[in-house]
């Protein structure tokens, strides 16, 4: 437990500090930062897929297009979802196999690139119906979750540092209200999917 | 040839898990490094893999980096109960620091294995069932579990 005690002899400085805290207990900058992080993570997730692919990128790529960032709540807290699972299942049902890897039993004969498979070669190979093939995991969700974790840590550090700096300035009488307009201090900031049909890349 | 740090971590983890499985009376569980090798043998199997390296400056002005490694451990179980039991057991085992060894390989065989520190888990990322849509997959993929964490060598 952290205990903080404030002993102000100077009433004006104490008033400045309280004013600063009141003025900065807003979501503005924190919300903006979270949105930036969410969109960066979405782009990173797509980048991981694109750098692992064998086929050339196409505008109608179903997996890439099924990964979206959605604002779920913007009042009383911040909820941002990346990759709605229901959408992924509907539009790119193989997403989980690409992400986690696995051994797939081919339903029909088809020609596929060898890049994703455990015994990779170059070019393409014909898989006959009923044959099984091990697909190597791309882990685009895991990589994004870990990236999200690092980015959120950086954002929290920055916001906290700025907020504390502002408090110090305000309480020393250097500024009142200060210009650092960040906070979400002591309030709920939530980042991730909500309820069923939520997404991945969740962090809270 | 001496292994570098990533492979030392993988090999240390494999040795630690293998030894602790025996100590805790688990039988018939393979521990593999390669994802493909997990499919080439009997179940259950634990697959250990160092996935990413995150360097972080030790301090301002220093060129020394602290190295954080992301480790993925995949469990290929034979039932959902076994999947959960193995996941819980692994989580408990890895909560404590474990020995970091350096390995020297000669003619494809470990010729020297020296204790050189501790591997410390610094952060957990995932502890979940993998692959929910399994009807077109083989048995090995039906009860899979993923544990992922970050660690460093102390």
Notes on the protein architecture:
- The complex is a heterodimer of chains A (204) and B (154).
- Chain A is α+β, with helices and mostly antiparallel strands and 204 residues long.
- Chain A has one domain.
- Chain A contains six helices and seven strands.
- In chain A, strands 1-2-7 form a three-stranded antiparallel β-sheet.
- Chain A is elongated and about 85 Å long.
- The C terminus of chain A is likely disordered.
- Chain B has 154 residues and is α+β, with helices and mostly antiparallel strands.
- Chain B is built from two helices and six strands; from the N terminus they run H-E-E-E-H-E-E-E.
- The model of chain B has no long low-confidence stretch (mean pLDDT 92).
- Chain B has a single domain, classed as STM4215-like (2-Layer Sandwich), CATH 3.30.2000.10.
- The longest helix of chain B has 19 residues.
- Chain B has a six-stranded mixed β-sheet.
- Chains A and B meet through helix 5, strand 3 and helix 6 of A and strand 2, strand 5 and strand 6 of B.
Instruction: Please provide the count of β strands of chain A.
Output: 7
Largest sheet of chain A: 3 strands, antiparallel
Briefly, what CATH class of chain B? Answer: Alpha Beta
Q: Radius of gyration of chain B in whole Å, from Cα?
A: 16 Å
Through-space gap between termini of chain A:
21 Å
Number of helices of chain B: 2
Shape of chain B: globular
Main β-sheet, spatial strand arrangement of chain B: 1-2-3-6-5-4
Based on CA atoms alone, the radius of gyration of chain A comes out at 24 Å
Give the CA-CA distance, first to last residue of chain B.
23 Å
What portion of residues of chain B belong to β-strands?
35-45%
Give the spatial strand order of the biggest sheet of chain A.
Answer: 1-2-7
Q: Number of folding domains of chain B?
A: 1
What are the low-pLDDT stretches of chain A, counting only 5+ consecutive residues below 50?
A: 175-204
User: How many strands, which pairing sense, and closed or not: the largest β-sheet of chain B?
Assistant: 6 strands, mixed
